[in-house]
Design a protein that fits this description.
about 190 residues, five-stranded parallel β-sheet
Length: about 190
């Protein structure tokens, strides 16, 4: 069931190096929306890229805190009906997949948040962009990227929030994302 709030929460997820953060910034600009960034980058920059299972719990809690701050900001700032979107880079599905893919386990907190938090639309970024090196990224090979994409797709198929797969490069990717959002939410 879609969120009944006037604020529309759009989550962008997918494997690493699929343009999630760039797309979030572009969508936020297009919609004059609040952009809720991915907390994992901040955490790993501060604490190092060698993480353990418990670090993922801290990252999940940080992500929730950023999201709550974005929701509060949106409630305070949005005056016009057409300015009612929050673009969220990463949610607890990403934390679940990351935890299970790396550690074969997931903290109950993450699973509780998946059950308790409500969103209006998911954009799953396709792996049609070339992998770009970054000290935060772990999976440059095509096989893990495809596996992770399939895991995200299965998660989205088995939940009841509208979603779509965004593909293309540069402006085409943004245009495709906007088309998917507008078809689902307008």
């Amino acid at each position: 069931m879609p969120n009944q709030s006037p604020i529309k929460k759009i989550v962008v997820l997918g494997p690493e190096s699929t343009g999630k953060s760039t797309l979030c910034k572009q969508l936020a600009k297009h919609y004059q929306a609040i952009d809720c960034e991915e907390y994992a980058r901040t955490y790993l920059h501060q604490n190092g890229t060698k993480y353990n299972y418990d670090d993922l719990l801290m990252i999940a809690k940080g992500q929730i805190a950023l999201e709550e701050a974005a929701i509060t900001k949106a409630k305070n700032e949005f005056q016009k009906k057409d300015q009612n979107k929050i673009i969220i880079d990463t949610d607890m599905y990403v934390m679940k997949v990351w935890s299970e893919y790396v550690f074969n386990n997931c903290h109950p907190y993450i699973l509780e948040q998946i059950n308790n938090r409500k969103y209006d639309f998911y954009l799953l970024c396709n792996v049609d962009l070339p992998w770009a090196p970054d000290e935060m990224r772990e999976y440059p090979d095509e096989k893990p990227r495809q596996e992770l994409f399939s895991i995200y797709k299965d998660l989205l198929i088995n939940q009841n929030i509208p979603w779509g797969i965004v593909s293309g490069i540069h402006q085409d990717r943004l245009n495709h994302a906007i088309q998917l959002i507008e078809a689902a939410l307008d």
